[in-house]
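User: Just a sanity check before I run the rest of the batch. Below are the structure tokens for the first item. I only need the designed sequence back.
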């Protein structure tokens, strides 16, 4: 069973998706399960985790509706306002949906680098475990100190770092980032997604070896038991095809044991997100 632990769907709307700049025009269209189907199946990926790209409950419901109609969507990472005093009530409402695994906030865009440890946000995070929800941490390296403080406060809460925390691959810099990721990995409740790398590199001139130093860091820090492959489709299309993104990780682990590959390409995601594969008609 192969799982893509991080991809997106949307019906393009210029205002709602204003983050898609002119140089990203390839993304200015609808991306729905039928658009991914051929790439996913020919790449041997059985299922995916659909992750929010818009900060609204409408987005969460949209992804859950897609998941209900498409068995290949094994889980959904949605959005609610975790800073709201009503966050726990909204979690209770969404807990009725089998495929809702957890939540994410686009913290990378917050002007306050300490957003993740603000009182209101921390109060919301404190409610997640009661309902069995995970939390995806989306940050830039400069925001990792706050992320470290957050995970230290909640040692029982499952967290996952999206996109290796977006290191400066284009600049070939690991300064500061590597040490912070090693500190993050010291918390056993934190996982890391092998995703989003191509869009942090030179979109047109990247080479597979550009990613090895960064993969070396996270493999050394987290080990194969807390890493999971994610395509970041369709955002990855800015720099690479679905197949190319998959091959970067496949080639890096090509000499690893079969059980290591199984964890990275499915087992870890299924465990972290508590994906009920057989229940949704998904079998190896």
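Assistant: Here's the designed sequence for the first item:
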């Amino acid at each position: 069973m192969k799982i893509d632990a991080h991809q997106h769907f949307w019906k393009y709307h210029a205002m709602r998706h204003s983050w898609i700049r002119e140089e990203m025009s390839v993304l200015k269209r609808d991306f729905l399960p039928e658009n991914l189907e051929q790439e996913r199946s020919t790449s041997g990926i059985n299922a995916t985790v659909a992750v929010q790209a818009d900060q609204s409950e409408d987005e969460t419901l949209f992804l859950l509706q897609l998941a209900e109609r498409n068995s290949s969507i094994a889980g959904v990472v949605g959005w609610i306002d975790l800073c709201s005093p009503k966050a726990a009530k909204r979690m209770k409402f969404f807990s009725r949906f089998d495929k809702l695994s957890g939540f994410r906030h686009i913290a990378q865009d917050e002007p306050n680098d300490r957003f993740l440890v603000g009182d209101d946000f921390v109060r919301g995070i404190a409610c997640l475990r009661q309902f069995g929800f995970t939390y995806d941490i989306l940050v830039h390296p400069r925001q990792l100190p706050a992320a470290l403080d957050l995970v230290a406060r909640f040692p029982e809460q499952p967290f996952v770092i999206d996109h290796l925390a977006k290191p400066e691959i284009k600049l070939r810099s690991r300064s500061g980032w590597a040490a912070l990721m090693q500190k993050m990995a010291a918390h056993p409740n934190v996982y890391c997604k092998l995703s989003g790398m191509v869009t942090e590199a030179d979109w047109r001139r990247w080479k597979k070896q550009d990613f090895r130093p960064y993969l070396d860091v996270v493999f050394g820090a987290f080990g194969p038991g807390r890493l999971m492959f994610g395509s970041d489709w369709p955002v990855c299309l800015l720099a690479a095809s679905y197949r190319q993104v998959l091959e970067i990780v496949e080639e890096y682990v090509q000499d690893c044991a079969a059980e290591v590959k199984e964890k990275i390409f499915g087992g870890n995601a299924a465990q972290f997100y508590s994906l009920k594969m057989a229940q949704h008609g998904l079998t190896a």
